[in-house]
Specification:
The structure is a single chain. The chain has 696 residues and is α+β, with helices and mostly antiparallel strands. 18% of the residues lie in helices and 34% in strands. The strands form ten sheets. An eight-stranded mixed β-sheet has the order 34-35-37-36-38-39-40-41, with helices on both faces. Strands 5, 6, 7, 8 and 9 form a five-stranded antiparallel β-sheet that branches. The two termini are 47 Å apart.
């Protein structure tokens, strides 16, 4: 049993077991293996969680400014939030949160200026706000809506069907859907969807590997037991299948995926020919082929075929399958591409800032969308028969605005602008470039109040991710705004492993090169210190999920470099992540401890759980996770926290905050988000010796 006393904190004793695994001849101890157990079914783990939370929340309650921070954060958060609208059938839809509602509400209106009517209000589904809307699929005739229901943050969804005009909920109910949605047949008689088999046990529901995904057709008005199996592949249980019906209704396109990399097989089926088989169009997981739409037998794809920064190509399925690039790779990395009206809309990142270009269906450049400064744009969806599209634009110091974009004229018209209780002119955002350990040039956004002194004493929060081809762009966040309002500097580097500069940038931060990501993050911290933004004692690091791994790895490699650390829902045991739920998909980015000796050695070298060293003074740390996280199972954070408390020396607290009835983050109610952020900011304020500037 371990029972450390650090300063005024006495951590719960955590039992150790004599468990050793062998990897390629190496013996690896795992003394906290039992903490991988499911908190719902193993009372021993539940007791440990309760004991840790008693210490953690007891400590949080003593933090200065905690109450004031939550009150100010609540006031800032209380503004109307809108999604960009979209059109389906003859109606417009958008999601809105009045301010402090736990979940966004889905509204519909007959015109952009017409009265808005509530269609779905998830806030009525549960008293504590932990049941969320988890996906939408409208029938082609605009009469029915299939939608997902997500409980307690789990990745599992239950799908239901509503008659839109009356708001009546039909008897249709589909279960065991994860990593998928619905796509309707053209005649609106039903929809295709992907699902897994029902787990064999309650514990398996939240921890077992997700394998053998299948595609079914659900006929409207029938029970799920009568759904028709459309495709399965028992010989390849790791493969997943995403179905999509082409807008003209002629084809069912099946994208086959095996991990998190954008490497797909593609099959299609002629829905107008009775009992037609699936035809393999793309064989082998070698490149990205993201289906955008079709013009007759010509299929459009976003691809990285001979184009690491992505291109748009066509394949005529009736003409021999020849690939033709119509929009060539650009200097900027293409993030997404879609067909709206008779336009191809391509979203790029230019040094991690949004850039959107329009092309005709032959790939000829038409125009670029103009934005009001450095920021992030999102939206640009629609159908082939639309003459308009919609998007949102925001930045670190610019609340979201939504716009209607006229595809014929290129004119953007602002529809709404968020009204937040602050003055954007009081803040500034800039982009800098710094060199990583190996000389690689890395961009970083830095945002803060105007007029700060570069005296090395500013409390600074360095936030990162660096993985899975995901790009971090300068968008608006109430919590980040409050951090800056309190007097803090906020910095976001665009680390390798992300998608900011295309495929090569992503690959440079994966598998045997994953250490590049940590080197980039450490170099960002050193840049902020060298340029007098902050000092080690005033610097905190934060990341979630893969970013939680980032924080865990960097605080074990350079514990003296930071004053505080906030690793959230992190992947902390890099030798066993592939054993749980979606973990097996991540081997594309991480490699696997059982695949080769080289990958095992690379993972072992940075795995946060395995690299905590006895007798080391670690920065003040608050690990965060949730008991129903079935994406990154909480056992990762449980084991890391137990080992951290055992290894750490000094008065800095090293605690774990475990949220209940919550998951990886999606669908998390506003009330829980505000509470967690207030806890984090109060924790940082205490340990960065911050005197928060809090308006009355």
């Amino acid at each position: 049993m371990s029972n450390n006393v650090q300063g005024q904190l006495k951590y719960p004793g955590t039992e150790k077991v004599d468990h050793v695994d062998e990897y390629f001849g190496s013996q690896v101890s795992d003394p906290f293996r039992w903490l991988e157990g499911d908190v719902r079914t193993e009372s021993k783990v539940a007791d440990w969680v309760a004991a840790q939370n008693k210490v953690s929340f007891g400590y949080i309650e003593t933090l200065p400014f905690r109450k004031e921070i939550e009150e100010r954060l609540t006031k800032l958060w209380n503004y109307e939030k809108y999604s960009a609208p979209f059109r389906r059938g003859d109606r417009y839809y958008f999601q809105k949160n009045d301010g402090l509602q736990n979940q966004f509400v889905l509204y519909m209106q007959d015109s952009l200026t017409g009265d808005a009517k509530v269609l779905i209000d998830p806030n009525k589904w549960s008293e504590d706000g932990t049941t969320a809307l988890g996906g939408l699929a409208f029938s082609d005739d605009g009469k029915h809506l299939a939608y997902g229901v997500q409980e307690s943050g789990s990745d599992w969804r239950t799908w239901k069907v509503m008659e839109i005009e009356s708001g009546k909920l039909l008897d249709d109910e589909l279960k065991w859907i994860k990593f998928g949605g619905a796509t309707w047949k053209k005649d609106s008689s039903g929809f295709f969807y992907n699902r897994y088999d029902e787990p064999k046990s309650k514990e398996g529901e939240f921890t077992s590997l997700n394998k053998n995904q299948k595609v079914y057709f659900h006929k409207l008005g029938t029970p799920q037991s009568e759904d028709v199996l459309i495709h399965a592949d028992d010989d390849n249980p790791d493969w997943g299948f995403t179905p999509e019906v082409s807008e003209d209704g002629k084809y069912l396109v099946l994208t086959v995926w095996v991990g998190t990399d954008d490497r797909y097989r593609v099959m299609y089926k002629d829905l107008e020919a009775r009992d037609s088989p699936f035809v393999t169009l793309i064989d082998g997981f070698e490149n990205e082929y993201s289906f955008m739409g079709n013009e007759g037998s010509v299929f459009y794809f976003k691809s990285d075929l001979d184009a690491p920064k992505k291109c748009v190509l066509t394949i005529d399925v009736a003409g021999g399958g020849e690939k033709k690039t119509i929009i060539a790779e650009a200097d900027e990395a293409m993030q997404s591409a879609g067909i709206v009206g008779d336009m191809i809309i391509c979203e790029y990142l230019k040094d991690a800032k949004s850039q959107v270009k329009l092309f005709d269906l032959a790939g000829k450049f038409v125009r670029e969308v103009k934005f009001p400064g450095i920021g992030s744009a999102g939206g640009f969806g629609g159908r082939r028969n639309h003459t308009e599209t919609f998007y949102s634009f925001s930045s670190f110091n610019r609340p979201p605005s939504t716009y209607r974009y006229d595809l014929a004229t290129g004119e953007s018209t602002q529809i709404r602008q968020a009204k937040v209780d602050f003055n954007p002119e009081d803040y500034q955002v800039k982009q800098v470039f710094y060199k990583s350990k190996d000389g690689t040039r890395v961009p970083m956004f830095i945002a803060h109040k105007k007029g700060i002194e570069l005296d090395g004493a500013n409390p600074t929060l360095l936030y990162g991710y660096g993985g899975f081809n995901i790009s971090l762009t300068p968008g608006f966040s109430v919590s980040r705004l409050q951090w800056m309002e309190m007097g803090g500097v906020y910095a976001v580097p665009n680390l390798r492993g992300g998608g900011e500069y295309g495929k090569d940038w992503h690959k440079a931060g994966t598998k045997l090169q994953k250490q590049n990501v940590f080197d980039d993050f450490i170099a960002a911290a050193e840049y902020l210190i060298e340029n007098k933004y902050t000092s080690s004692g005033n610097l905190a690091i934060q990341g979630r999920s893969n970013g939680g791994l980032l924080v865990g790895a960097c605080m074990t490699q350079r514990p003296e470099l930071y004053g505080a650390a906030l690793p959230g829902v992190g992947v902390m045991d890099m030798l066993r992540f592939q054993q749980f739920t979606a973990g097996r998909f991540w081997v594309d980015d991480y490699g696997s401890s059982t695949a080769s000796a080289a990958e095992f050695e690379a993972l072992r070298a940075y795995s946060p759980y395995h690299n905590l060293t006895d007798g080391t003074a670690y920065p003040a740390t608050m690990v965060t996770t949730a008991d129903t996280d079935d994406r990154v199972v909480p056992g990762h954070s449980f084991k890391f926290a137990a080992r951290l408390q055992e290894a750490h020396v000094g008065e800095n607290p090293v605690i774990i905050r475990i949220e209940t009835a919550a998951g990886h983050g999606a669908g998390k109610p506003t009330s829980k988000v505000i509470e967690e952020v207030a806890d984090e900011w109060a924790f940082l304020a205490k340990h960065l010796k911050m005197k928060p500037q809090l308006p009355n």
